[in-house]
Amino acid sequence: MVDVYSRRMHQRQLPGLQRDRKEALADLTHLQGLLERQRQGLRRAKPITLAALRHRVAKALAREHMSSLFRVQMQKGDLAPSLQFEELPEAWQHLQEYVLGRTLLVTNRKTWSAERIVRASRQQCHNERFFRDVKDPCGVSMLPLRHRRDAALRANALLVVLALILVKIVKRRLKRAGVKVRSVAALLTALKKIQRARLQLANAAPPALRAFAAATWVPSQRTPSQGRILAALGLENRTELGTTLTISQTRAGRAKHLKKVE
Fold first, then answer.
1. If you ran DSSP here, which 8-state letter would residue 216 be given?
2. In terms of DSSP bridges, do strands 195-197 and 243-244 run parallel, antiparallel, or are they unpaired?
3. H-run or E-run covering 102
4. Are 87 and 70 a contacting pair, CB within 8 Å?
5. Which residues, 6+ apart, have CB-to-CB distance to 232 below 8 Å?
6. Would you say 261 and 202 are in contact if contact means Cβ atoms under 8 Å apart?
7. Tens digit of pLDDT for each residue in 2-38?
8. What per-residue confidence (pLDDT) applies to 119?
9. How far apart are alpha carbons 113 and 245 in whole angstroms?
């Protein structure tokens, strides 16, 4: 077993733990107020029994590590059960020193050094990132699945893996060119927003102008990030990139559209 500590992970976990601690303290204080109102006969709702109090306290301390940060005492009373609680500074100190930011690695590689075990564990993050990319609907995702047969599911999985490999190759080329891309989803989102358009003129327009409009693509305005990506891939001068918005129209709808253009 190897105990790994990360200061960055510690700093990321601390705000969430402090928020949960504050919410648990507020819930317990609120329960104390309800019991006091019931004891004074000012509460008209259903009386809180000892069993109901235990259930509410368990719910208030259900967040991770909260049950170890508070010492709670509950007793049965005449008009209402009593609730007493206190925070445990030593429990908070234990979390700070031995829990937050720490990961315990368990392996059967007894001959490996601790450094080699940690390095091998960190290399597995690529596999975890692969599964996150496969499940991300903004990227190369297998979801939602609209197939039921095994053959269709296998074909879908093959296409997703091939597409993800291509995206990884593009991302590697961008990294070599010095272009930083946060994730596969961010790369695909930037590329999807690169669009093109084609002008459509009325029948009364000159034939030469109509021919020119039919053969010319109008690229959309690109952001600096999109420009760096296309430049790194050698595609900055390709105006035919992107998607084209196609609207299927009926004959009446097309005639109405042309009349508006005229």
1. -
2. parallel
3. strand 102-105
4. yes
5. 173, 174, 177, 178, 179
6. yes
7. 888 888 889 989 999 999 999 999 999 999 999 999 9
8. 84
9. 57
Give the C-alpha separation, 179 to 225, whole Å.
9
CB atoms under 10 Å from CB of 233, counted, come to 16
* Residue 144: cis peptide before it, omega within 30 degrees of 0: yes
Token pair recorded at residue 165: 């490999």
Q: Is-contact 174 229, C-beta < 8 A?
A: yes
Q: How many CB atoms lie within 10 A of CB 34?
A: 16
Checking DSSP bridges between strand 195-197 and strand 218-219, what pairing results, if any?
A: antiparallel
From the number of C-beta atoms within 10 Å of its C-beta (0-12, 13-18, 19+), residue 10 rates as middle
Closest CA to 64 of 127, 98, 107, 21: 21
Q: Which of 202, 178, 208, 205 is nearest to 255 (CA)?
A: 202
Q: Identify the bridge partners of residue 49 per DSSP, sorted by sequence position.
A: none
Q: What pTM, to 2 d.p., does this model score?
A: 0.52
Q: What is the pLDDT of residue 241?
A: 61
- In one-letter notation, the amino acid at residue 62 is A
* Separation in Å, CA 34 to CA 39, 66, 70, 73, 236: 9, 21, 19, 16, 67
